[in-house]
Amino acid sequence: MNRPNLTGQRLVAVFLFGCVMFNYPLIALFNKTGKVFEIPLLYFYIFTVWAMLIGLMAWAIERRED
Amino acid sequence: MLQGWVIASVSFAYLGVLFAIAYYGDKRADAGRSLIDNPTIYALSLAVYCTTWTFYGSVGRAASTGIGFLPIYLGPTLMAGLWWFVMLKIIRISKANRITSIADFVSSRYGKSQLLGGLVTVIAVIGIIPYISLQLKAVSNSFTILLHYPDIVMPAKAAAQPLLQDSALYIAMILAAFTILFGTRHLDATERHEGMVAAIAFESVVKLLAFLAVGIFVTYGIFSGFGDIFSRVESVPKLKSLMTVADTGASYGSWWSLTFLSMLSIMFLPRQFQIAVVENVNERHLARATWLFPLYLLIINIFVLPIAVGGLLHFPDGNVDADTFVLTLPMVERQEVLALFVFIGGLSAATGMVIVETIALSTMVCNDLVMPVLLRWKSLRLQEQQDLSGLLLSIRRWAIALILLLGYVYFRAAGEAYALVGIGLISFAAVAQFAPAIIGGIYWKNGTRQGAVAGLLAGFAVWVYTLLLPSFAKSGWLSLDFIKEGLFGMALLRPQQLFGLTGLDEISHSLFWSMLANIGCYVVISLRVQPSVAETGQGTLFVDVFKRTAGTEGSRFWRGSAQVQELLPLISRFLGPERARAAFLAYARRRGLASADALEANPDLVHFAENLLAGAIGGASARVMVASVVKEEPLGIDEVMNILDEASQVRAYSRQIEQKSHELEKATSELRAANERLKELDRMKDDFMSTVTHELRTPLTSIRAFSEILRDDPKIDLLERKKFLAIIVREAERLTRLINQVLDLAKIESGNAEWHTADIDLHEVIEESAAATSSLFSDKRIGLHMALSGNVPTVRADRDRLIQVMLNLLSNAVKFCEAERGRVRVALSVEGGEVRVDVEDNGTGISEADQRTIFEKFRQVGDTMTAKPQGTGLGLPISRQIIEHFGGRLWVSSDLGKGATFSFTLPLNGSGAERREERT
């Protein structure tokens, strides 16, 4: 019954999560030379988080019951 | 060798395809089968956000700052999380008020203010011009470079070229002509362009595919995958530094400020507002776009860094502008078709942006800047002109041409000083100024028109001073001293280190000061001035849009009425007669009327007409025009407040109704309980009657039987005869006793009993009762023990009645005790203000269920129908009535099989009894 309302709150939570992940100080942890799967660490981190945010938003929206 | 004519004809062919798509989209829309009524198309059309800035500029930005190109796409991704609330609200408001542009939105929110609409338009036009010049620069550069295929020749400085040989000028003209053909073919009442949106969605696909093609070619064609590219980076120190950002507060600060800036831009760029809000077909589309649009941004950015690194590795000497890597890398590898495809992709990105942006801006210029002025200009006699729809169209066409011309002028003046992204960011900072007035406007009812005007002016002024003028200075139009020394040589006023603030990049610096000025003025002035009636009304409509039903509410804040005959010609002048008549007819049909002439003159009709007109000329102008034919009944602030109150009253009423229904429910359940009780009583009465008759019949039957024996059989001997007569007498006595008790109980219950109250010594009462029942005890050989406290004060009661109670309790005790082994104990004590009498036996005891019922009439322990009744079943009820009459209590405590104790209390002399007396 409350599902549609929760969708909005889930999205805001994703927003806040993203704000933290893309900001100092967390981003500074990955601001180092080094590679993951042959990709520079910082780029790997940002694109991974980015994809994760999109996935979370898609999950929040497409599972809503309305 | 790519000939100029090949490039040109492919370009025009591409534009032709766009035109065909738009034409088809419009046809489908007219047929009622919208092409764009689809969340995926909506998400793709939102990708108009990705312009040549993204297509060419991101690589340039990545080549100079590494990660610095990303915040522009991370911001919109984050913002998409808030769309569910913020964007949905803006869309809902805009649909309810037929908002046609961002200027119209701000103006409508603050009381349909023409001043605000005009101000927003001016800021938007000036702010967006650098952005348009960016597109011109990108297309013109890519065209020039492609023309020299296969040589890589950087275009000469535009300013150095004679005007007529500057390809950017022709591109501006072609884009203007194309946009005019595209966006202003007819005047739409709703200001929506379905065909255009379909074409924009198509362009988004083209530019994405083109960019991915280059990316894949560079990554897997020139190099052998991501790993190869990034491993080559290791050997070049300059490239290696791009893989991380400088670990300083300033670089994280500007990272975040660019993210924040792009969060605002995705909402408030005029073209984003146009696509996301004005062109939105169904607000449900927003849900899918919330994740699909960020996904588009992610995909188009995957190959930015490989291309940038690839370009830097390929052109290590720095002769090739990094902004052109996307094009020059395929060219240097002799990929003719790919290079052409890239050029078309860039053209897609540019045309998409220019079309939507200039259409949005031209609507604003026409509705919020030019029309208000023309309508006030009495000497033009515009009010008398019959058909103004042509005028509206030509104003828009001229506006489009003018905006592109200004874009070109800025390109000539300042475009060379910046990379593509640098130019675009200047525009981003300008549209960010709309954020306080809009976000405040939809969540804060107290935001006022004056506050919004002051905030916008202050923020815009700071933007001009800290970003626009320095961009002129850098390109030589102003003296560089202005940047270095500050205005009038005052160091504190240096535009990029305002008040000595250093350590921020120029965009973050400008964003900080302009937002501070903007929000500060908006909030402080809003809190100081009293809003007008119109502002209060509109403010409430906007903020509470989800609480109100759209359409009907607006008319209540502005009462006026006019006949259809007055309104129709007015609307016709702007929309054209056929379109206006059709709209009125549709409105009449919705109300179940056969023709428009049958419409009643009322505020709803006026509101409908105003909304219709607002779609064509903007809210503020529509209000002015409609007011010219409508007899307005002005509303006082009190009335507005009343209307607003009504809404809260309705909520209060519904709360009251809820409460009432709760009360009703409670009363119903009480009634139901009372009804149950009555039924129970009725059943008890029936039981009573049947018990009474049963009880009466038993002695009567004996009496009758023995009497008949005596009558019919004369031979019975005397002894027998005496025995029978004794039975008859005893049964008759029992009958009498029963009838007396029934009458007694009835009297007590009805309050008609006679009471002879006196001071009673309970000792005496108990002893007399014991004496009266001594034969019962001796018959069954049951012991009676007295434990009477020596000194007990008298109580006020009826002596005979108390003896009646004691007799009842004692005979009960005997009744339930086993012969010989039975023991009965009577105790008398004083407790608190009461005298207490206990009659304790060691008989069969009373079960808990029976304890509750024995005080009811005719209820006896055991089944009265099968077992021989041992009494009348009235003794205890009568006793209780008597004790309660004198203010005392009678109760039982017992465990089954362990005997029972009947106790009663009576208040000591002078407390309960007298009160009772007074009442009876």
Quickly count the domains of chain B.
4
**Count of DSSP-assigned helices of chain B:** 35
The count of strands of chain A amounts to 2
Class by SSE composition of chain B: mainly alpha
How is the biggest beta sheet of chain A arranged?
2 strands, antiparallel
Element string of chain A (H = helix, E = strand): HHEEH
What are the key terms here?
heterodimer; A: 66 residues; mainly alpha; 3 helices; 68% helix; 6% strand; B: 920 residues; Helix Hairpins; five-stranded mixed beta sheet; two-stranded antiparallel ribbon; 35 helices; 67% helix; disordered C terminus
Describe the structure.
The complex is a heterodimer of chains A (66) and B (920). Chain A contains three helices and two strands, in the order H-H-E-E-H. Chain A has 66 residues and is mainly α. Chain A has one domain (3-62). In chain A, strand 1 and strand 2 (39-40) form a beta hairpin. The relative contact order of chain A is 0.18. With 920 residues, chain B is mainly alpha-helical. Chain B has 35 helices and nine strands. In chain B, strand 8 and strand 9 (900-907) form a beta hairpin. Mean pLDDT of chain B is 81; it is low at 550-554, 863-869 and 912-920. The chains are: A mainly alpha (66), B mainly alpha (920). The interface between A and B is large, with 34 and 37 residues.
